[in-house]
Structures are given as structure tokens and as C-alpha cells.
Specification:
heterodimer, A: alpha+beta, CV3147-like fold, CV3147-like, B: alpha+beta, Udp-n-acetylmuramoylalanyl-d-glutamate--2,6- Diaminopimelate Ligase, Chain: A, domain 1, Beta-Lactamase, Alpha-Beta Plaits, five-stranded mixed beta sheet, 17 helices, 47% helix
């Protein structure tokens, strides 16, 4: 059994990698990063196992569920939501969970499973179900049948909730409604999946890749890379660098959608970045140059930190990058869940970045 | 699709009223030619290219990314321009910048505008201008019906139909209604004209009524040739309505003039006997009959035909500007005016009035040439009659052919007339001419006899002196005089007969001898 061990010194790389793979959404990894760091200050090391090490045991996929991504910043967690969520799932299903799985490797949700692992002592699987961050619970590589079962929710004041026998669509509707009555934010466990099945569907190695991405980002920031150099270092595609002229946020839609207008620093080109919770598409001079499921990042041109869709403002000097995602997301059977049309954009998907980083 | 012979530029289309309130952003290549207008549900250039104007009808606004992607495709296809719905928000900054960089004009419609309607109207203008022209003329005719109560109602209707200012100018180019007129145009040729000054093109159409034309002018901003033709058609359609209005005005003026002329004639005839009815009519016209009047007679010197009614306003203005108020009454050969004051005017007042009359004549200039006579001050209704008669006599005494054509010589005061001028004045009167033509009618074709008679009377009925003056034998003269007496049925030894014949001869003297005798 290949076991990687993760400690306090890996948190920064994980946070940086998760922030980039958030594609502007997925929630700010800063808070969950601090939380994880706190859990690991005593020198504890986490076990991470390869997906192909999984056998007949159970994997519980964890994430945080919020009616909006930013609620966690305002509603401080009690600290034991995640471990109670695991305990509740074990109690309801009458089994012991053998490993913790990641729903998504992008955004703050990438870090919560590690907190649960730190609190329960269970190992984390090196992989996830999204390959980056997405907004909807059903935007995973798992089949509908895999996510048909008991959804468990635990919240800071001690409330827990089980929604059994529904698929991701229904669970999302029920939970979003319920969460408004429970303070807006809670830990969420997906229906537990058998290890043998989980290793078939999971995107393997995405945690390792995110850690590598984070480390390279740290080096690039320290080196003072410009946008193109950083894109190259991260194995992505440089789309442009310039000043945000205007941010147009559409109102009256289910998700926070809008457009960011950027004029490149040389004044020769314009970039238009469409967003819906995440950055989902980039047009350069009217031509579509990148779309979901590739990751689109807007970074602050000075700090090289990822800018969330909710934070981008007029006057920001930004670097636009596209980062590759696992090939699986581009396969026709699942592409519809991740492509532009899944984000309200009537455009064909356009792949700009191939995965070049070694595992 | 049929293609117009006259190419229309996008700039001209943007100036079209159908695009009122629209804004042009992005590329500035407005001089591109538009040969076809196409409606598309989205920003889609497929199958289109040079000369195509795309009107997008299926979007709420132009903020979407598809618009930006479409701008790129349209620019690559080299279309003439893109008309987009504006909605509540403008396109994203990048869309505008991209259009600018690629040189693609974006026209943002006003929020209230219907893209289909705009497309239809622009397409008609580009492809079937003759339909648009007829449509405009029809619309004008429908709207104008029963609305010709003023000149401005005609210009206003034309203005509404053309969605452009329409003004009316007087013969000398001054604005009568409206507020737009060209600085220069050929007023000497009464033909339709098109004058362009800066961004405005003036379509000018003359309405010919009487001696002086009225001009109707449409001011179009950067019009397509088709728009100019439309304006010409609408102004032509407006011409009869302007004429109708002019005729109505003329009728009213004629009626008013007749009222004034007959009232004055009644006053002159009845003098102190003018009864309540006449006084009432005077009151209606605002004439003061009490007080002291000084009559002024303005006799036209121009060759007839002259239009006293049409020139009335100009004369009235000249008099007012010279400080002479009061009525102005049309006469067959001019006008009568008078000045009224409460107390008897002093000689200085009269001199002042004479000065004012000279001043007024000066203002009238050469188009309306006038000899003026001024009567003595007289009180009451009877006085008015007397002073007007005196003014007429004085005016008749002015002989423009002899004197310096200075204005002073064209104004005569009755007091300044000698007996000779009085006689001459009388001989110029209508009654004198009536007497002469009646009395001397038998000699109408006997020029020899008439001349002999005239010379004979001038030489104090001396046959010898007459024979010497004419270079004839005295028997010939005697014989002619005898024949003349027989023909006329008069006896020249009778003082009454003699006086009548002499006056008649003097009246006709310019005809008789063709001379002009100075004073």
C-alpha cells in the first residue's frame, strides 16, 4: 500500500493549488487552509492513499455545502462539523468508513476532507470527483447511480440531517432549501461508495497534482514571474495580461454570473471573461480561446494570487491563464456536465491546455 | 433584391429619422456603402459581406458574449455595419473596443425603437426608394387634409412627415415661419433648388403666387440622395396647400381693403353729414373721426399693373417706421393715409410730418415709387374729407419727370402750390381726364386739328400768332378753328366753352404735343 504522508508544511501548497483549480469559484481556500493548519500544528501527519489501493471498504466523499460560497467566511464553523458528519453517516449506514474522499480539488472544498481526516484519523484518497471546482453537486465524474443514497449534513449548532434515496439534483434542491434554515453552511457527506467502485470513477492523483501546482506557484511568486512565465511554469496557457475595464454582473439569475472586460497592457487586444460562480469562458478579440472544463484563472498581476469571481473589480490588473484538467473531463460521455452549456453559455467547448505536468 | 442606383452611405442611414436616438459606437467607418439591409435574430454574418448592414432583432441588449464573438465575425466578413438593440446597458467595453479596432461601426438603437421597423424602413430606403417617396407624399396628403388654417400648419405637417425642420421664406429670403434657412440661394430664379451648407442640406421649393414667390425649405441633416428626393416630392405636394392658404389670405385682404376704401369714399362724400352707420363702421376699423386731421395721399408712379394690396404691408411698415401711424386706405392709384391729433397742429408739427413722409418714401426704395401730397390740417369728419382732397391735389401736382429725382421733390404740400400747379394738379385728376376725353372725343383721330386748337388757345385766340407759330397761312388756321368748333359743338368766343376746352387741351397736352413743359 503506497502511503504518502502530509504535514503542516504541505498545507500552503495544497491551498495554493486548490485556489488555482477553483477557477475563480469554489470558495476561498484561505479559511479552510488556516483550519487545516490548526489541526496539524501538533505535528500530526495525514495518510494519503492511492485510489488503486482501495479494496472493498467504504469511501465517504466530503465537502462543505453552502447556499452561497461565501457564507463560510461569515458563519464561523464550530470545528466538529466534519467529524460529526462522518460519525452520522457511519451511524446511519451502520458501517465504518475506511477512507475519506474529495469531492473537488478546487476551492475551499479541497481542504475540508483533510480536516476530517485529521479529526478522525482516517486516510484520504489521492483523487477527486471533479478535477477542479464546479458549482453544482451533480457536476462530477460519478454516474447518477453512484450518487443515489443517503446524503448527510452536519451544522455548527449540532443539527444533522439525512436525505436518503435521492440523486444529486434532488439532494441539491433539498439541501439548499434546508440550509437557509440552518444558518447557510454545513459539512456535507455524499452517499458512501464502495472502494472497489470508487477507484473506477475517481480522477486519480489530483491531490498530488494540486500539491505540485501549489509548489510551483509558490516558486513562481517568489521568483517574480510575469504572467507568461508563470503560465509556463504551471503547465498552463497564458491568455493575456491587462487591466479590468468593466465588470458586468447579471442580476436575477440562479448563479452569480457576469462578464469581465480586460484590455491587454499593450492595448492591442481585448479579453472578455464570462463567469458563473467560476470563470467559465474566455474570448480574446471576440474569439473563444478557452472554456470549461479547463480551468480559467484570473490572477492579481502583482501578487499572482487567484482572484475569486466575486472579488474581481474594475481597475484590477490581472493575468488570465488556462490550466488543464484531467482528460476524463473532456470525454464525450461526461463533457456535457462540465462544458460551457452546463454554465449557461451556448458555446462549444474549446480545450486550450493539455495536461503536461508529471504526476 | 433590387439595388438602388444611388449608393447610400451608413452615415446617411444613421441620419435617417428611423434611427432617431440611436448612437454610433465602435468603428468610425461610416462612409461605407450600404447596398442591402438584413435582419438577423442574432449577430450572424453568415452569407453576408461587403455592403450589408445587419440589424439584430432577437436580443434584449448587446451585452452578451455572442455579440462580441459576432462583432469579430462581422468584421472579418467586411459587412458595412451592425445595428444592435441597446437595452438598458451598453455592450461590454471589450465589445466596443473590438469593434473600434476592427473598424466595424456599431449602431445602438434607442431603447424604444423596434429593430424590425428600423430594418424595414432602412431596407426600403436602400432598395426601393420610390416606395418610400410615395409613402411620404401619401402621409403628407392624409395629414394635411383640412388643416390649412395657417402657413405654419402646412410647414409643420411637412416637417412631421419628413422628420426634419421645414420653414417658409419670403421672396427676399427672410423667415416667415420656422427657424431654418440657408445663408445663400438663388432667389432670382424661381426653380426648386438644393443647397448644402456644412452638414445641412436645404431642399428649397418655390411657391409662385402673384409677383413674388414664397419659398418652402426643408433642412435635412446629411441626407441620402433618396431623402432629398423625398423632401422634394413632399414639398411639391405641399405647394398647392400653400397656394390655397395664400388665396384665402388674399381674399381676406381684398375684403378688408374694400371695407376701408368704401368707408373712406363714404366719408369723403358725406363729410359732416356722415351718420351713425358710417361712424360705426369707422369705429370698427379703429378710425378716429374727431380731432385734427392732416391728409396724406400716396400716388404710385410705377407703371401699372401694380398690386396695391400686396404692397400694402411694405408701405404700412415704412410709414410706421417713420412715425406715421393711423389708417392706410387703398385707392386705384395709391393709398390715402392721415395723421390725427387732438389739438390743431402748429406749422412746426406740419413740417415734422412732411419730413416723416419724405423719410417713409426713402424707406420704400425704388420698387415702390411714390409721389406724396399733404393737405392742410382740418377738424372733424368734414375736415378729414377736405384735407384728403387737398392731399390728392397736391400729390397730383408732383411731376416726377421734371424734377430732380430727390425725395424732397416727390412730396408736395398743398400750401406750397401756386395757381399754375393747382391747375396742373387739376388737369391730372381723373375728372379732368374724363372731361378731356369726353369733350375732345370727336378730335380723337384728328391730330392736326387738335394741335392747331391747342396752339390757338395758348396764343390767346389769335389766328395770326397761331399761323406764325405753326408756320401756316392764317386762312388755314381760321378754317381749322371753324371746323374744330363745329366738330366739338362749342363756341370759343363763349368764356365758359373756351375755359372748358382749354382745360381739356391742357389735360391732354402731353398727348397733343408730346412736350413736357417745366414750371
Amino acid at each position: 500500500m503506497t502511503v504518502t504522508s502530509l504535514g503542516l508544511d504541505d498545507v500552503d501548497a495544497l491551498r495554493r493549488g486548490a485556489s488555482l483549480l477553483g477557477s475563480g469559484g469554489g470558495g476561498d481556500a484561505q479559511l479552510s487552509g488556516l483550519w487545516l493548519a490548526k489541526e496539524l500544528t501538533d505535528g500530526q501527519r495525514l495518510r494519503m492513499i492511492d485510489a488503486d489501493e482501495l479494496s472493498d471498504g467504504w469511501v465517504l466523499t466530503l465537502c462543505a455545502a453552502g447556499s452561497t460560497a461565501s457564507v463560510a467566511v461569515e458563519k464561523l464553523p464550530a470545528g466538529d462539523e466534519l467529524s460529526r458528519c462522518v460519525a452520522m453517516a457511519e451511524k446511519y449506514l451502520g458501517v465504518t468508513m475506511d477512507a475519506i474522499g474529495l469531492l473537488e480539488i478546487g476551492g475551499s472544498n479541497a481542504l475540508f476532507p483533510f480536516i476530517a481526516a485529521a479529526q478522525t484519523g482516517k486516510p484520504v484518497v489521492d483523487g477527486d470527483l471533479m478535477g477542479r471546482a464546479f458549482s453544482r453537486l451533480d457536476q462530477t465524474v460519478a454516474a447518477r447511480e453512484d450518487l443515489l443514497g443517503a446524503w448527510v449534513c452536519a451544522e455548527a449548532h449540532g443539527a444533522a440531517m439525512v436525505v436518503d434515496g435521492v440523486d444529486a439534483h434532488t439532494a441539491e434542491r433539498v439541501l439548499r432549501g434546508a440550509l437557509t434554515g440552518l444558518g447557510g453552511w454545513a459539512a456535507l457527506a455524499y452517499p458512501a461508495i464502495r472502494g472497489s467502485r470508487y477507484r473506477e470513477i475517481v480522477l486519480p492523483g489530483t491531490v498530488t497534482a494540486a500539491l505540485e501546482l501549489g509548489r510551483r506557484h509558490r516558486v513562481g511568486s517568489a521568483t517574480g514571474d510575469d504572467g507568461a512565465a508563470l503560465a509556463d511554469r504551471l503547465g498552463g496557457v497564458f491568455l493575456g495580461q491587462g487591466t479590468v475595464l468593466e465588470v458586468y454582473r447579471y442580476t436575477g439569475r440562479a448563479f452569480a454570473s457576469g462578464s469581465v472586460a480586460v484590455r491587454t497592457a499593450d492595448g492591442q487586444h481585448v479579453l472578455r471573461v464570462e463567469m458563473q460562480n467560476e470563470y467559465t469562458m474566455v474570448l480574446r478579440d471576440g474569439e473563444v480561446v478557452a472554456t470549461a472544463p479547463d480551468v480559467v484563472c484570473l490572477l492579481d498581476a502583482h501578487t499572482l494570487q487567484a482572484i475569486q469571481t466575486s472579488q474581481v473589480r474594475r481597475g484590477h490588473e490581472v493575468v488570465a491563464l488556462a490550466l488543464p484538467v484531467p482528460d476524463r473531463l473532456w470525454q464525450p460521455d461526461v463533457l456535457d456536465r462540465f462544458g460551457p452549456r452546463a454554465h449557461g453559455l451556448d458555446a462549444d467547448p474549446r480545450r486550450s491546455a493539455q495536461r503536461r505536468l508529471a504526476r | 433584391m433590387k439595388v438602388s442606383h444611388e449608393p447610400v452611405s451608413l452615415r446617411q442611414l444613421v441620419a435617417h429619422p428611423a434611427l432617431d436616438g440611436a448612437r454610433v459606437v465602435g468603428g468610425a467607418a461610416l462612409d461605407g456603402v450600404v447596398r442591402r439591409v438584413t435582419v438577423r435574430p442574432s449577430v450572424d454574418a453568415s452569407g453576408l459581406g461587403y455592403g450589408d448592414l445587419i440589424v439584430v432583432a432577437g436580443l434584449d441588449d448587446a451585452t452578451g458574449w455572442q455579440v462580441e464573438a459576432g462583432i469579430r465575425r462581422c468584421a472579418l466578413a467586411d459587412v458595412a455595419g451592425l445595428v444592435l438593440p441597446a437595452g438598458r446597458r451598453d455592450p461590454l467595453a471589450t465589445s466596443v473596443l473590438l469593434a473600434e479596432r476592427l473598424g466595424l461601426p456599431l449602431v445602438l438603437l434607442a431603447e424604444s425603437a423596434s429593430p424590425h421597423d428600423v430594418a424595414l424602413r432602412l431596407a426600403q430606403l436602400v432598395s426601393t426608394p420610390e416606395v418610400v417617396r410615395s409613402e411620404h407624399v401619401l402621409r403628407f396628403v392624409r395629414r394635411i387634409r383640412g388643416q390649412v388654417d395657417s402657413l405654419s400648419s402646412v410647414t409643420k405637417t411637412a416637417s412631421e412627415v419628413l422628420s426634419a425642420p421645414v420653414s417658409a421664406l419670403s421672396a427676399d429670403g427672410e423667415l416667415v415661419t420656422g427657424g431654418h434657412s440657408p445663408a445663400e440661394f438663388r432667389r432670382d430664379i424661381t426653380l426648386p433648388q438644393v443647397v448644402t451648407e456644412d452638414e445641412t442640406t436645404y431642399v428649397i421649393h418655390p411657391v409662385i403666387a402673384g409677383s413674388a414667390p414664397l419659398w418652402i425649405v426643408a433642412a435635412l441633416r446629411q441626407p441620402a440622395v433618396t431623402m432629398i428626393e423625398i423632401a422634394q416630392a413632399v414639398l411639391s405636394a405641399a405647394e398647392p396647400w400653400v397656394l390655397a392658404w395664400l388665396a384665402t389670405q388674399r381674399l381676406d385682404a381684398e375684403r378688408d381693403a374694400r371695407a376701408r376704401t368704401t368707408l373712406l369714399a363714404d366719408l369723403l362724400r358725406l363729410r359732416e353729414d356722415a351718420g351713425a352707420v358710417v361712424r360705426h363702421r369707422a369705429a370698427i376699423l379703429g378710425w378716429r373721426l374727431d380731432g385734427w386731421h392732416i391728409g396724406i395721399y400716396l400716388r404710385r408712379l410705377n407703371e401699372s399693373p401694380s398690386d396695391n394690396l400686396a404692397d400694402r404691408d411694405e408701405v404700412l411698415r415704412a410709414l410706421e417706421e417713420s412715425g406715421i401711424g393711423g389708417p392706410l386706405v387703398e385707392q386705384s392709384d395709391g393709398w390715402v393715409a392721415w395723421h390725427t391729433s387732438k389739438s390743431e397742429p402748429s406749422p412746426a408739427d406740419v413740417n415734422l410730418l412732411l419730413g416723416s413722409v419724405r423719410d417713409a418714401l426713402g424707406r420704400l426704395g425704388s420698387r415702390i415709387e411714390i409721389a406724396a401730397g399733404v393737405g392742410r390740417a382740418a377738424a372733424g369728419t368734414g375736415g378729414l374729407g377736405r384735407t384728403v382732397e387737398e392731399a390728392r391735389e397736391a400729390a397730383l401736382s408732383v411731376d416726377p419727370t421734371v424734377s430732380d429725382p430727390g425725395q424732397d421733390a416727390l412730396v408736395a404740400h398743398i400750401d406750397a402750390l401756386g395757381v399754375g400747379r393747382l391747375v396742373r394738379a387739376w388737369t391730372r385728376s381723373r375728372s379732368a381726364r374724363a372731361l378731356a376725353s369726353t369733350l375732345l372725343a370727336p378730335l380723337a383721330d384728328q391730330e392736326l386739328l387738335l394741335t392747331t386748337l391747342d396752339v390757338y388757345l395758348e396764343h390767346e385766340s389769335s389766328v395770326v400768332a397761331t399761323a406764325a407759330a405753326l408756320g401756316l397761312h392764317r386762312n388755314t388756321v381760321s378754317d381749322r378753328i371753324t371746323r374744330t368748333q363745329r366738330l366739338l359743338g362749342v363756341n370759343l368766343r363763349d368764356p365758359d366753352d373756351r375755359l372748358a376746352v382749354e382745360l381739356a387741351c391742357r389735360t391732354l397736352r402731353p398727348k397733343v404735343r408730346g412736350d413736357s413743359r417745366g414750371e
